[in-house]
Write a structure and sequence with these properties.
Number of strands: 16
Shape: elongated
Strand content: 25-35%
Distance between the termini: 98 Å
Number of helices: 5
Order of helices and strands: HHEEEEEHEEEEHEEEEEHEE
């Protein structure tokens, strides 16, 4: 009888230990603290501060890169920011700030640790901060993404702390022009003309047509639309081209075509406000600057 009782108690203890191992409320904060401390030391980061807003620590550490000079942020605020991040194990890296561009309410930001960090430590629009987010405020014991839990390529593994760098945009128009200038420099683009609206265009082959393209025109052309990371989000390059009415396209496309006639090829790069804006579209993230390369086949008034 004693042997049976002992076995039952041992089984219960093992079961309880197993439950505790996967319970984010038991010792997970200590585990995360150890992981963050080790990560900071391994990467030579000596000036990160611990978030103690409200008198109780979240376990988040942060490093201010730029304090910003815009308004203070609160949860009901609409906020736009770009970001990149990686898991502490280095197996998941999201460095594409063209795609990693948020526009919405601060109170809807995910994961929770990022929302708390921005609210507590970023302080102002225009600021840039690096956050070290504990796993219990990130994606917890299960992680996130596609594929097996044991394979972290393409997913964040369970119990992974995250290293985020976030830049809140204070002036979208100025930020877009900075992005466009960096893009043209990185790709050795020259010969573009900037219009008062912020659109950049370049005619690579002059047109032979006599009809100017106006708001009332119908145009047949081939085109390729790209995000500034090189991703093609739309294209129509079939012989004979595609026909559409000028009012049916985004404002930057309309304005760009006004500088060309039939027979021309033209490239234009537009700020997000002249594209799909904060709402984005299928294949186009929020606040994305766009590039279009077009060959104009025909124009009718």
């Amino acid at each position: 009888m004693k042997q049976v009782l002992f076995s039952l108690l041992l089984l219960a203890a093992v079961s309880l230990a197993s439950c505790r191992k996967n319970d984010p409320q038991v010792d997970i904060k200590t585990y995360d603290q150890q992981q963050i401390t080790s990560y900071l030391a391994a990467n030579g980061i000596t000036n990160a501060q611990k978030d103690t807003v409200g008198g109780d620590t979240t376990g988040i550490y942060y490093q201010v890169l730029n304090t910003g000079n815009g308004a203070l942020l609160s949860y009901p605020d609409s906020v736009a920011f770009v970001y990149n991040f990686r898991s502490f194990d280095g197996k998941f890296i999201a460095s594409d700030t063209v795609l990693n561009h948020y526009d919405g309410y601060l109170g809807h930001v995910a994961p929770n640790g990022l929302m708390l960090g921005i609210h507590n430590d970023l302080l102002r629009k225009g600021g840039k901060v690096r956050f070290f987010i504990p796993s219990h405020l990130a994606y917890g014991v299960n992680g996130t993404g596609t594929g097996s839990k044991t394979i972290t390529n393409g997913r964040i593994a369970g119990n992974q702390c995250l290293d985020y760098t976030v830049e809140v945009i204070n002036d979208e128009k100025a930020y877009d022009q900075l992005v466009i200038n960096h893009y043209m420099t990185a790709n050795n683009l020259s010969g573009y003309t900037e219009t008062p609206s912020g659109l950049w265009y370049k005619i690579t082959i002059p047109g032979t047509g006599t009809n100017s393209i106006t708001y009332n025109s119908t145009v047949t052309l081939t085109y390729t639309g790209l995000l500034l990371n090189g991703t093609i989000f739309d294209q129509f390059n079939t012989t004979g081209g595609e026909q559409f009415n000028i009012p049916d396209v985004v404002p930057g496309f309309q304005e760009g075509l006004e500088h060309a006639t039939a027979g021309a090829t033209i490239s234009f790069i537009m700020p997000s406000a002249l594209g799909y804006g904060a709402a984005g579209s299928s294949g186009v993230p929020a606040n994305a600057c766009l590039r279009y390369d077009c060959a104009i086949i025909s124009v009718t008034p």
